[in-house]
Design goal:
Layout (H helix, E strand, L loop, with lengths): L1 E2 L8 E4 L7 H7 L2 E6 L4 H13 L3 E6 L8 H11 L7 E5 L3 E3 L2 E3 L4 E6 L5 E6 L5 H6 L2 E6 L2 H17 L1 E2 L2 H43 L4 H11 L6 E2 H11 L17 H13 L10 E4 L3 E4 L1 H8 L11
Helix pairs in contact: 1-2, 3-6, 7-9
Length: 317
């Protein structure tokens, strides 16, 4: 995998890129450039702008307005470039929503298609939009191909999308600007809600990971019985602390709670002690509870250990 643009904070990567590939150089020397993106922002355009405009390529861009993320200021710039005499063939268009069998179709591609003067060509298809995040800082993944048949298929797809798209005009941009401004606040709220949700989910995932690494009740059966093998009385507190040490239970692993509000580790330990006492179906007890919070091994428990088991399940008790 190769980063589309080198940088420590850049995470947009492309598979299959040739050695010494440089996108800026390719754009500057290209004969034609086709770009399709779900939405576009000035931050992404600035990254490729000089390389595209310094060259003499025939440039066509089709962008959607996905969630009103495309900036009207960028559309204005593109329209201005389109009208320049020095750029006789630069055109950017909008791909507006279409309906197929009463279903709204969302324009959501991310495609670069570049043809060189020597008639060779390549395409990059991936997840990143024409934004700084899509080209550099987001975690994005794309595939480079110079396979003639594949690039031809992509070009055919692009031609169809281009024909279905709408040329820019001052009226269209002004009309869209009203919607764009109205959508700013809701979009920010949604992004904020997403960040909060991701933070909560990350915490939940961490807690789940902690739970996954905790010994379950059946895993604890043999260690508990071995701990009590000396025929002495051991308090619940001592048992808990010694098992924590044996399994290297860290303080943060005691954070996850079971449904009754007790730490999962304590819950699993209590279940294991109950199983060893004969629960849930009146089995012969392998340990007895002596006093309020102390336990001692029984003759049955000693007999189980004499079998030298490598592990125990409830059925083994």
């Amino acid at each position: 995998m190769t980063k589309l643009y080198a940088g420590q904070t850049h995470h947009s990567e492309v598979a299959g890129v040739p050695k010494k590939f440089d996108l800026d150089t390719e754009l500057r020397t290209a004969e034609s450039i086709c770009i399709a993106t779900a939405f576009a922002r000035e931050s992404g355009w600035r990254i490729v702008r000089d390389a595209i405009l310094d060259g003499a390529a025939h440039v066509r861009i089709v962008t959607g307005l996905y969630c009103c993320h495309t900036q009207p200021e960028l559309l204005e710039e593109w329209q201005t470039i389109t009208g320049r005499v020095k750029r006789p063939h630069f055109e950017a268009r909008l791909h507006l929503h279409e309906t197929d069998l009463n279903q709204e179709l969302v324009f959501h591609p991310k495609v670069f298609i570049v043809s060189r003067p020597d008639r060779t060509c390549f395409a990059i298809v991936g997840s990143g939009n024409l934004t700084a995040g899509g080209l550099q800082t987001n975690v994005e993944c794309a595939l480079y191909t110079s396979e003639v048949a594949q690039v031809a298929d992509l070009r055919e797809w692009f031609e169809d999308a281009y024909e279905r798209s709408t040329p820019l005009s001052p009226q269209i941009i002004d009309d869209y600007r009203l919607t764009y401004e109205a959508a700013k606040l809701p979009n920010r709220k949604i992004q904020s809600m997403q960040l909060v949700a991701e933070k909560k989910l990350r915490k939940a995932a961490q807690n789940s990971k902690r739970v996954d690494t905790l010994p379950d009740s059946q895993t604890l059966l043999l260690p508990l019985l071995q701990l009590l093998a000396d025929d002495a009385e051991h308090s619940s507190k001592e048992i808990r602390e010694r098992i924590k040490v044996q399994f290297n239970i860290a303080p943060q692993q005691l954070i996850p709670k079971s449904r009754n509000g007790v730490p999962v580790f304590h819950h699993n330990l209590a279940l294991a002690l109950a199983y060893l006492q004969g629960a849930p179906h009146g089995r012969t007890a392998a340990i007895d509870k002596v006093g309020k919070e102390s336990y001692r091994i029984t003759q049955h428990g000693k007999a189980i250990l004499k079998r030298n088991p490598s592990a125990l399940t409830i059925k083994d008790l």
